[in-house]
Amino acid sequence: MPNEQFFSIVEKSIASGESVEIRVRGSSMYPALRDNSHRVVLVPWKREYLRVGMMALIRWGGRHVLHRLVAIQGEVLVFRGDNLPYTVEKVGERDIVAFVRSVIDPQGRVTDSRGWRFAIASGWAVLSGRPRAIFLAKAASLRVRLGKLLSVKKPESGNGNRIKVLFFIESLVGGGAEKILATIAGHIDKKRFDVTVCSVTDTGIHVEQVSRHVRFRPMIRTRNRLLYSILYHLIYYVLPPGWVYRLFMPQGRDVEVAFCEGFATRLLARSPVSRKIAWVHTDLESNPWTQKVVYRSVEEEREAYSKYSTVVCVSETVRESFMRRFGLEAVTLYNPLDSEDIVRRSEEKVALPPKRRIRFVSSGRLVEQKGYDRLLKVAKRLRDEGCDFELWILGDGEQMDSLRAFIAEAGLGDRVAMCGFMDNPYPWVASADAFVCSSRSEGYSTAATEAIILGVPVVTTLCSGMRELLGDDEYGWIVGNEDDALYEPLKKIADNPACLRDLKSRAKRRGGDFTLSATLAPIEELLA
């Protein structure tokens, strides 16, 4: 059932005075509520329930979210997911659909949200202003004293002649930057470099791969929900970056790398280490997501980058935009990809659906930046005009429900498949006639590069790095970055598949340029 149809039924039940039990989906309230494990009981909203720390189902941005009230600003109520450090929802009381009366954990135990147990579990949100700051600062002080008492920081072992390198990234979930870091961790010369990867949390699909090859040091390891919340909010909201660095970051490295823009660069800018490197994976002119989220102004962000000895950009386009925006020097190093492993994994036997028509494939996180909403509108137009094709979208993310709802409403179920995240997407990509990138912005698309390695032509909107990857339409087609720009090339392919024949052979030749040794060597040279 489409997401909004489901919540329409919930709203009708709540409006009639009934209570409704629903299962939690998504990780925005982790660890208080776990995806597909916890259930909540919703009841009709009453003003007497209004208090900081409560959880409620609200309407926001054309969708429904179940988040916690973190502040009351006059008539404006500020909600936020416990696991979303950068996103708040500001709504009015009329936007509250229902109040979370109780939470049911995976073992069936019920916690009343009006009871003392729930108040303790929500302590970080109930406390505000100076009392909250004092409480959390004391918690930090206690953590430091316990760390010294119990010798939490173990001495690092290894060859003293190796260069000690720290890579910091917020998490190891399924994004392009995280995949590239996992590749570096797996293939960097261990005889020359003693590598540590640090993240805020210890979850993510790349954790196992990184841990096999290098030292992995997450800031938060605990599974205790209250302690997790305290530490998480200390790191993101309460403590100054310098304190977070001293309290939580592994020390004693020769080189430190903030491997993604945003919080990572803000944090390591406070490091006393002289050799600091910042990695920029996106065009911060066309996609200035860090503003008002991590930094208060462009000047503040520029000051942070000025603390780094080197700024690395993943494409020439990204480097040029970075230099225009901040007036600082930067270098270009392309993302290393293990092309031999990609080809090998593409040949693994998987149960692919039989091919009956032209097949388009796209792969990426289901977020606004990737433009899947406009790709589906193009798919609908192609279907309405009688084009015979199928589109597979590989990936997961916050827009999954809204994209599925559009597919259902437009009757695209026989043409478009939302395949979800895949540990090995390469057989699916290799089976396609063309790979489609509908992004509004990129840095240097990992997914498009992988498609070229597999000899699959790329049809893409004009984003950073695409001309460097595809040349002047030599290995794929680049169109404008407008909502309907992909319509013409996809229609051309659907109407005349033979037009791809030359592109496929050229794409395969271009794929041979992406050897791991050629792209990893400049990175090792930079770190040495």
Helix tally equals: 20
Structural class: alpha/beta
Topology-level CATH name of the largest domain? Rossmann fold
Dominant shape? globular
- Assigned CATH superfamily of the largest domain: Glycogen Phosphorylase B
Structure in words:
37% of the residues lie in helices and 20% in strands. The protein has 528 residues and is α/β, with parallel strands linked by helices. It folds into three domains: 3-126, Umud Fragment, subunit A, CATH 2.10.109.10; 163-332, Rossmann fold; 347-511, 3-Layer(aba) Sandwich (Rossmann fold), CATH 3.40.50. Strands 1, 2, 3, 4, 5, 6, 7 and 8 form an eight-stranded antiparallel sheet that branches. Strands 11-10-9-12-13-14-15 form a seven-stranded parallel sheet. Strands 18-17-16-19-20-21 form a six-stranded parallel sheet, sandwiched between helices. Strand 10, helix 6 (207-213) and strand 11 (215-216) form a beta-alpha-beta unit. The longest helix is centred in the first third of the chain and has 22 residues, at 129-150.
Features:
eight-stranded antiparallel β-sheet, alpha/beta, Umud Fragment, subunit A, single chain, Rossmann fold, 3 domains, 37% helix, 20 helices, globular
Topology:
Elements: H1 3-15, E1 20-23, E2 39-44, E3 55-60, E4 63-73, E5 76-80, E6 89-91, E7 96-104, E8 110-112, H2 116-121, H3 123-126, H4 129-150, E9 163-168, H5 176-187, E10 193-198, H6 207-213, E11 215-216, H7 225-238, H8 241-248, E12 255-258, H9 263-268, E13 276-280, H10 298-305, E14 310-313, H11 316-326, E15 331-332, H12 339-346, E16 358-363, H13 372-384, E17 389-394, H14 400-410, E18 416-420, H15 426-430, E19 434-437, H16 446-453, E20 458-461, H17 466-470, E21 476-479, H18 487-495, H19 501-511, H20 516-527
Parallel strand pairs: 9-10, 9-12, 10-11, 12-13, 13-14, 14-15, 16-17, 16-19, 17-18, 19-20, 20-21
Antiparallel strand pairs: 1-2, 2-7, 3-4, 3-7, 4-5, 5-6, 7-8
